[in-house]
Amino acid sequence: xxxxxxxQIKSLVDMLGQTRDQELNCSECQRNISExxxxxxxxxxxxxxxxxxxxxxxxxxxxxxxxxxxTKVLRESQ
Length: 78
Description:
mainly alpha; elongated; about 75% helix
């Protein structure tokens, strides 16, 4: 079994410290990511579910990539 480096251990501990009682999974994030992107671009406040999307994006590189692509398309279509 491969041992983790000190940096990998620190990264895992940091991620655990950022977890919340109620978190979205990727499917839930994807269902709400369009509204989140539109509100972010418009500078509108976020409700509770969209705040969870925002938190999920800090933890998930795949959803963050989708979010960045979506916001790019939305900004180009304005």
